[in-house]
Amino acid sequence: MFRFLIVIGVSALTACSNAPMKSQASTQFAPCPSAPHCVSSLATDSKHIAAISVNSAQEWQRLQTTLLAMPRTEAVERQAQYLHAVSHSAIMRYKDDIELRYSPDENRVDVRSASRIGYYDFEVNRKRIEALREQFNTGSAP
């Protein structure tokens, strides 16, 4: 009975987290919260992760395609130089927000990945961005 109540409670909390984490402006990244469930190429602390290098608009398109081919990941918002996607965890369907912002003059894509709920993410967001980088750089499918 106790396990059942825990499952119901966690499910109720998950259901309350449907609203995406919106940045201040559509193409500006929100800063990572104090909780360790976020990584960003714009962060200057332990939440920092390297931006992804791209050399052309075609590579930017390929990076977007690579991200959206990852399991349980779908686009929420797309602009010419910005992509906001959501990835769902396999079991509990927790939602993580992934943002990519292309800077063609700098040949880079800034990245941000953050869990919507919880405190720890057990490095899931960092691993996701590193897997995206690896798949993009090697041209392998997710």
Q: Which labels suit this protein?
A:
TATA-Binding Protein; alpha+beta; six-stranded antiparallel beta sheet; 142 residues; 3 helices; 29% helix
SSE layout and pairings?
Layout: H1 2-15, E1 38-40, E2 52-53, H2 57-68, E3 73-79, E4 82-88, E5 95-103, E6 108-115, H3 124-138
Helix pairs in contact: 2-3
Can you describe what's shown?
The chain is an alpha+beta fold and 142 residues long. It has a single domain, classed as Kinase associated domain 1, KA1 (TATA-Binding Protein). Helix content is 29%, strand content 25%. Strands 1, 2, 3, 4, 5 and 6 form a 6-stranded antiparallel beta sheet that branches. The N and C termini lie far apart (39 Å).
Give a brief rundown of this model.
This protein has 3 helices and 6 strands; from the N terminus they run αββαββββα.
Give the count of structural domains: 1
Number of helices: 3
Secondary structure: number of strands: 6
Sequence stretches where pLDDT stays below 50 over 5 or more residues: 4-25
Spell out the helices and strands N to C.
Answer: HEEHEEEEH
How many angstroms separate the termini? 39 Å
Choose one word for the global shape.
globular
Assign the CATH superfamily.
Answer: Kinase associated domain 1, KA1
User: What CATH architecture label applies?
Assistant: 2-Layer Sandwich
